[in-house]
Amino acid sequence: MSDIHPDVARVLITAEEIKAKLMEMGESITEHYRGKNPVVVCVLKGAIYVVSDLTRFIDTDVEIDFMVVSSYGTDTKSSGVVRIVKDLNTSLCDRHVLVVEDIIDTGLTLKYLLRNFAARGAASIEVAALLWKTGAQEIDIDAKWVGFEIPNEFVIGYGLDYAEKYRNLPYVGVIKQEAVGAE
Ligand code: IMP
Ligand code: MG
User: Fold this and answer.
1) Residues 6 or more apart from 34 whose CB is under 8 A from it?
2) Residue whose CA is closest, atom 10 of ligand 1?
3) Is 167 exposed, middle or buried (0-12, 13-18, 19+ CB in 10 A)?
4) How many angstroms is it from 133 CA to the middle of ligand 1?
5) Residue 56 gets which letter from DSSP?
6) Whole-structure pTM over 0.90, yes or no?
């Protein structure tokens, strides 16, 4: 692996660990959805790598669609007020929907999406998230597939940004305090 980014305090999950976990999740998702042709919803931008890598481990037909949401708040804290910047192209009516998320932090963004998708008449809705922040959820949220539970710290990499930076790191790491709020 290339050198650790200078703004990363420590690596929480390596690229190899992510791959192994997504392979496991993919096998389980394959069994669950075999023959059901689900719509995999990628919530941009954070979930790009999870969707891209995870779906390659799903061994049954799926469709993939993209949604861009913007959650009002500060750079490190979500507010729960969500704006749909780009909606799905696919109708969810009577479809099995798998929402793929990078991280479930407060859970407020996801809660909004789940309610929104239910109103579109989805036949079923499940959630797969790579990361789950322990103790950070402000509301009840149920994710059928969770990759890793992590401490309640701000993380970057593998799709996750701080001020739009660091998404392309191949691992998940904790950002250095001095990199937060710099510039
Ligand atoms: P929520 O707090 O669960 O609504 O999280 C909404 C979104 O905030 C996530 O999908 C991420 O894009 C972003 N987010 C939450 N926690 C982190 C983090 O630790 N690092 C980077 N982005 C985060
Ligand atoms: Mg973000």
Assistant:
1) 60
2) 103
3) middle
4) 9
5) T
6) yes
- Give the neighbor-by-neighbor strand order of the sheet with 145-150: 78-86, 63-73, 39-44, 96-104, 124-133, 145-150
| Residue 57, pLDDT score | 98
* Percent of the chain whose pLDDT exceeds 70: 93
Active site residue 105: yes
Q: Is 137 in the pocket of ligand 1 (CB under 6 A)?
A: no
Task: Say yes or no: CB of residue 109 within 6 Å of ligand 1.
Answer: yes
Q: Supply the pLDDT for residue 175.
A: 95
Is residue 1 a contact partner of residue 171, using CB atoms and an 8 Å limit?
A: yes
What are the counts of helices (DSSP H) followed by strands (DSSP E) for the chain?
3, 9
User: pLDDT tens for residues 64-94?
Assistant: 999 998 876 666 666 677 889 999 999 999 9
User: Where do runs of H (alpha helix) occur along 15-160?
Assistant: 15-33, 48-55, 108-119
Q: How many CB atoms lie within 10 A of CB 152?
A: 9
Residues of the chain with pLDDT under 70: 1-2, 72-79, 182-183
Domains annotated for the chain, with CATH where assigned, are 20-154 (3.40.50.2020)
> Measured between alpha carbons, how far is 10 from 175 in angstroms, rounded to an integer?
8
Query: 12 and 172 in contact (C-beta within 8 Å)?
Result: yes
